[in-house]
Amino acid sequence: LAIAISTIVLGTLTALTVYASRSTKLTNEKITLQNEVKDAVNHIESYCMEAETASWHTVPATGGGTAKVLVVYERRDDMKSIVTSSAVQVDMVETLESDAYAYWFMNGKLYFGKCSHTGDVKIDALEAKDIYLLADHVKEFSCEVKKNEKSGKQFVEIDLQAGLGRSEYSCNKTVYIRNQ
Length: 180
Hints:
alpha+beta
């Protein structure tokens, strides 16, 4: 009888320990994702708010495939010099005199770098280098650059989704470009 009770108690303790371990792992995954997504979206927000304009593109990536890229421009006049009637000539971004920054999504990661004349990121040859890494575990990154109908001011709608193990986290944010 004592052996049976001991076996039941030990089995219960083992089951509780396994459950607590799994629960802790899941909680840690969620916290990791929340912090990663929050930090990435806050970074994008700070650069967009201080810019004069932005543009969203899908471009060829180094090594094949494509990359989704948000380009944030410090000065609107510089951006206008590389705009054609149908698109922005992204390969000309590095010729701009003012600063321009890029956020690009490829291979499940989000990257950030300076792509104007003093930067080392080439929009027409984006690479997945850890030196530019902003966020891991990214499942989807998309942005829309829109214009407010009443004020005529541009804003960027950001959608960032991340996943790690069985945990997922997403964040949507609208950022108004202040310096227009």
